[in-house]
Amino acid sequence: MSSEPELMSSSTTVPEESGEKISKKAAKKEAAKLEKLRRKMEQEEAARKTASLSLDDESFSENYGDVTLTELKSTADSKAGKWIEAVEGMGKKWTDVRDLVEEMVGSEVLIRGRLETYRHKSSKLGFLILRQSGFKVQCVATQSEETKVSVNMIKFLKQLSSESFVDVIGVVVLPKDPVTGSTQQVEIQVRKAYCVNNALPQLPLIVENAARSEADVKAGKAGADQDTRLNNRVIDLRTPANQAIFRIQGQVQI
């Protein structure tokens, strides 16, 4: 008699354990199914974004690129390129970097300068410092529908070498914080950018090094000796000190 209740007790617990295992297995299966569905949705969303970016890059491809020699030598009768069409659209009114002031905020300008530095913040944001006759301005390239700047344009700007000749069309804005590293206190929101002449990746003389004082060199910073500067005078003349000398000479009446 004592064994019968035990058998009945054991027989009743087995289905409960089995049911619990089945429910856990079903829960794991359902969770795996939901995870698979979530990943599929993420992949589809990423594909849609990629397709959208590709479409934007294709539609905005006319807003950047290298200027070909054929375009530079072109005449009114020759076939126009994207750079010529952009420049003519501005009425060929070039603005000197020195003339970029707060009174011009909101206006669209066309400038040309040498690329001094480029700071790559992300695939959608980059900062350029353009230099012209010793004057510098910061240009900001932001990927968006409004600016008509694509991800591929950011990539294009990133691969440009220092001292390259670059034409930029953009809108003058006044930044919230003072701009460091430039002489002008306004920025250019880039709309179009074209490389007229891409400099060599490795130059025999870096302007920043040639511009350093003896004190900076003694402090351990990279500099340039006199022979190197004289042998590469065309680059040495781009330093702020040499540019200042020529500006003073240009104002002196003999």
UniProtKB/TrEMBL annotation:
What SUPFAM superfamilies has UniProt attached to this entry? Answer: Nucleic acid-binding proteins
Highest taxon of the source? Eukaryota
Biased composition of type Basic and acidic residues is found at 18-28, 33-48
Q: A single GO molecular function, which one?
A: ATP binding
Q: Does the keyword NADP apply?
A: no
Can you supply one Gene Ontology CC term for this chain's record?
aminoacyl-tRNA synthetase multienzyme complex
Ranges for the region named Disordered are 1-28, 33-52
Lineage, highest ranks first: Eukaryota, Viridiplantae, Streptophyta, Embryophyta, Tracheophyta
Please give the Gene3D superfamilies that the UniProt record associates with this protein: Bira Bifunctional Protein, Domain 2 (3.30.930.10), Nucleic acid-binding proteins (2.40.50.140)
The organism of origin for this protein:
Eutrema salsugineum
Q: Name one GO biological process term.
A: aspartyl-tRNA aminoacylation
Polar residues bias: start-end ranges: 1-15
This protein's name: Aspartyl-tRNA synthetase
Which UniProt key words apply to this protein?
Cytoplasm
Keyword Isomerase on entry: no
